[in-house]
């Protein structure tokens, strides 16, 4: 079976990566690729492995003609159109990258390596927040082996989390700073060059930001953990381009043997253990950028939690594992399990 695949928002940072993942992986049987955009981009041409493609003006009807549609657009747009695109037997499967449907009971929130089977339940699938998807690649295999009592996460998140405008603001701001000019910030709450900003997304009533609460809500849903599992996060923006880093402290139910934990991570799909302090080898945004696998290192027994705790550091490409790659893996999983037919 060959599929007609649509991308909405293909000219944005995530949309571009979705197209490139489809092209370079070559696992999803793409017969036709259709690219949908706004009036501004409609009519322009995108060079792809599937030929030169003319960007079509977005419409729900045109998207419904596809077998699968990737939405790389904002939550308001997704809320307005996603369910209409997938409604009924003749609707398309929709894989939505926004947060619009992540917490809806009837919409699976999927990291294919963890809960890929959920994709059989619905034609609308939500892609997780990048911070959650990257962290869970390492957390999930450890949780399966040792159980989970508590998770404490601190993040160091790249400018790409705010899309191409975020990366552009960091690059032009850095140049301006070095030239002694004024650093303008429109995307981030403060100038990002040579700074760290302990705020991503809006503050909530409980003092956490929305980005931090996404980690709590999404980890529980994807791993099917009890609603009150204590998972907390401090999310910080740092001046890197496109790989998020995370310090994770896991309190476990069972005693942890660090060698076994390392073995578990070495065998986990989508994970690359980079952990040799002697050779100064550990995960870093520079090495994780452009990689499908998430790097995990600095693996050690936790002083805070003794035998029942592990601490480690994770870096993953925000646009790939945190967005586009996860979405494409969802489609590949659905091709495999028959949910696309
Ligand atoms: C960020 N997690 O890094 C967000 C993007 N989804 O800003």
TrEMBL record:
InterPro entries: Asp_semialdehyde_DH_beta, NAD(P)-bd_dom_sf, Semialdehyde_DH_NAD-bd, Semialdhyde_DH_dimer_dom. Its EC number is 1.2.1.11. CDD domains: ASADH_C_bac_euk_like (cd18131), VcASADH2_like_N (cd02316). It catalyses: L-aspartate 4-semialdehyde + phosphate + NADP(+) = 4-phospho-L-aspartate + NADPH + H(+). The active site is at residues 130, 244. The keyword Oxidoreductase applies. It comes from the Eukaryota. One of its GO terms (biological process) is threonine biosynthetic process. The keyword Oxidoreductase applies. Residues 4-122 form the Semialdehyde dehydrogenase NAD-binding domain. GO terms for molecular function: aspartate-semialdehyde dehydrogenase activity; NAD binding; NADP binding; protein dimerization activity. Homodimer. PANTHER family: ASPARTATE-SEMIALDEHYDE DEHYDROGENASE (PTHR46278:SF2), DEHYDROGENASE, PUTATIVE-RELATED (PTHR46278). This is aspartate-semialdehyde dehydrogenase. It comes from Cylindrotheca closterium.
